Amino acid sequence: PIRRLSRTHLRVTPTEIERALGQLGSMQHGAFTRRMAAMVGVSWKAVEARIRSGTLTEPAPGVLVLGGLPTTWHQRVAVATLAGGGAVASHRTAARLHGLDGFDSDVIEVSVPVHRRAAQSAATVHRVAALETCDIIVVDDIPSTTVARTLADLGSVTTRRQVLKALDAARRAGVSTRWCRQTAERLHRPGQAGTGVLLRLLDEAEGDRVPESWLERLVEELLAAPGFPPLVRQHVVRDDAGRFVARVDLAIPSLCLAIEAHSRRFHFGDGAGATDEDRDLRLTACGWETLYLGYQHTKRPGEVVPLVLQTVARRKLNR
After folding, report:
1. Which of 20, 42, 101, 284 would bridge with 37, disulfide CB 3.0–4.6 Å?
2. Around Cβ 222, how many Cβ atoms within 10 Å?
3. Which helix (H) or strand (E) holds 181?
4. Beta bridge pairs of residue 110
């Protein structure tokens, strides 16, 4: 709790003011409002004096930032939400706060209920009819739309492909698709792009296993070529005694062919390399062959797909 300054006849000391401002600034990346400062006893006169001295800055009307702190993306988002009069980080900004794949730009977007007045800021402001409590969460000390609400909003500002990438990341993190569907259905109105995109993607994902990485999805799409056998995602390989051997990204079980999405993130370094080698030995002992495809392979389908098809043809002949 923030301590309020004394409002008695005693003079409020500069030390007390600095302490109160420091407490306010510790909550949202150094940002707070004039109203918040007044609530803890810092007068308008004290605020103006500190703006003149550079102790405080006012990047948006009514929003203050402690001077001397580095200007970060999080701080700018905090300023935008405070300037919005009930605004929350949303859309691509919320996606970055939640760590959803594909959203790492410095864009700042906030949502504000239509009945609220918002001060001018550097953010893109989305006026929304509904912004219910169940759709709001605090992430990194910043009020934000929940993951489900964020996914429902994204399709109105970015591509279906980007929404799919974000949805995959959310599902891998354990986010409930049922929650996402309920949120999208509650918010959906005729003509709304974002909720419609999410609902269609959820329909397609029904009963499907989520890829372990975006690269895995890219590799699967690469091999969705005419004449290529159907791929099984996240296939578990067992030996003749039914013991677990390995779980592979993609597989053609009838040919005992495993295809791994090979990325630096999960397959780079001595430890990861040794793990891959041990698993490959176990798979080979069970009659399996493993192909590794990386991101660059997905950029050369005309060259890569025929080579993989040759392996498929050879495996068929040897069955």
Report:
1. 42
2. 20
3. helix 177-187
4. 89, 125
**pLDDT digit string, tens, across residues 149-196:** 999 999 999 999 999 999 999 999 999 999 999 999 999 988 789 999
- Give the span between the Cα atoms of 236 and 253, in whole angstroms: 10
Each residue's pLDDT tens digit, 15-52 = 888 899 999 988 899 999 999 999 988 999 999 999 99
The Cα–Cα gap between 37 and 46 comes to 10
DSSP state of 72: -
Residue 235 identity (one-letter amino acid): H
| The pair of three-digit structure tokens given for residue 41, joined into one six-digit string | 């006893």
pLDDT band at 94 (very low <50, low <70, confident <90, very high): very high
How many C-beta atoms lie closer than 10 Å to residue 178's C-beta? 10
Q: Is residue 136 within 8 Å of 88, Cβ to Cβ?
A: yes
**CA 22, 26, 30, 32 torsion-angle sign:** negative
DSSP category for residue 106: -
pLDDT grade for 9, boundaries at 50, 70 and 90: very low
Alpha-helical segments (H) within the chain: 14-25, 34-39, 44-53, 73-83, 91-97, 147-154, 160-172, 177-187, 193-205, 214-222, 264-267, 270-285, 295-298, 301-318
Residue 293: beta bridge partners? 261
Tell me which residue of 192, 201, 199, 136 sits closest to 165, measured CA to CA: 201
Retrieve residue 39's tokens: 């609530």
Residue 100, token pair as written in the block: 């959803």
Assign residue 253 a region: left if phi > 0, alpha if psi is -120 to 50, beta otherwise? alpha
Give the torsion sign (CA, 79, 82, 83, 88).
positive
Q: Percent helix, strand, coil in the chain (nearest 5)?
A: 45, 20, 35
Residue 72 and residue 74: Cα distance in Å, rounded?
5
Output phi, psi for 66, to 5 deg. -65, 130
Tokens of 194: 């974002």
